[in-house]
Amino acid sequence: MAFFSAWLTVFAVSLVAVVTPGPDFALTLRNSLAYSRRAGLYTAVGVGAGNLVHATYSLVGIGAVVSQSILLFNVLKWVGAAYLIYIGIKSLKARRLAIPLQGHCMNAPEHAEQQRDIGRMAAFRIGFFGNLLNPKATLFFLALFTQVVQPSTPLLSQAIYGATVAVVALVWFAVVAVMISQRIFKRYILAISHWLERLTGVALIALGLRLAVAEASE
To answer: How do the domains of the chain map onto residue ranges?
Structure first.
């Protein structure tokens, strides 16, 4: 697979994955609402760092598999494509998202939400460990990288793939933190979150099918 085509696949799947409301979205949203924009931004940085860790060990693990068995590597590619389709199907069943605020009511006055804040490192840790300890993230990264990493893929290309995922997550959740701290957007985003997840589910299914068909034709 050519580098640019593979990179586009990584970028597209990463973008679809991060805009799908999930634990990372919920943590960033909650900290932005319950504490401050700054807390949301540092949570986003933590999420990006967690994704970088996932990308690193996934790529190292895939490299180890490639060196041992091409057959096992191809099996992982098929399983990865199937997993992307699976999470896409689950996303189609999404319901309206509700984000509870710790110690706050959604209808509480704005100044009440700003009475306390958390430190930068505390917000970073919430995003980092929330992402790092999510077992679904591990499966997702393995599913993604088994589709684009080949035995001949240079280490530099692999590093770019991993960095792409981390940067996409960081930028998206930083945007979420900034936008959601504008209260006018809060209820709108919550109201359409389930439709957003359903649309991304369709995109994930399409990408998974495309990858499976492409692999079958090789």
So the answer is: 3-217
